[in-house]
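Notes from hallway chat w/ T.B., transcribed later so I don't forget. T.B. wanted the structure written out for a chain they're using in a teaching module, and asked if we could keep both sequence and structure tokens in one place. Agreed to drop them here.
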Amino acid sequence: MAPKLKLYTSGTPNGQKISCTLEELGVEYETYKIEISKNVQKEPWFLEINPNGRIPAIVDETSGTPKRIFEGGAIMLYLTSRYDPDHRISFPYDSEEYWETVEWIVFLQSGIGPMQGQANHFYRYAPTKIEYAINRYQTETKRLYEVLEDRLKAQEAKGQGLWLVGGKFTIADLASFSWVNWAEWAGVELDKFPKLQTWLDNINERPTIQKGVNVPEKFEMKERMKTKEGEEEYAKHHSNWVMQGQKADQEKHK
């Protein structure tokens, strides 16, 4: 019998954080790869699932009536509330740690994700390299990384280890991990953030994470970055679909 939880995703930071969450929880799921390069996320059938036309999204049919959830933070909170009764990567609802977790997920969604996403765009994809825009978004990404660095230092000093909330690995860490793991793609190095680098390395060592980042396809960015040729080919491939999508949106919203 096919799993009753369906994940609609692509190999991006936002998509990887949900596949990693599902792997951490040990939930069976069926993967539907959304071909962003073909604008599948804008097709009517997908807009019924996510009216914003973005990945990730899930449809959960385990309780009979299909429940669709979109936006990464909402999906993470839903999955842990339903599938993490022992709170392995979450905390009991309304506890102090629960609301701290919500804070750090929102921090990612409203800060790191948008700012690093713009750094990616202007550094990697924009047809015209605008120094001001590149500096603006790389600097803001670094500032937000410093917030994480300071939090990890403070947690370690309190005996909480290198974890954002509650002395253990949770979805608070996983949310930001998904973007920090792509730091070099935005042209941001972690040399000045040693605690953040150790935190990143520790998370990457988890077998569930190693499996999750390779959904729905092999995560190749880091390997491609090892050579200039590979880096340029990877950038060209992704730039093509980014600019095609932008052109389609511009035509629609003239």
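Follow-up for T.B.: The chain has a mean pLDDT of 95. Might be a good example for the class.
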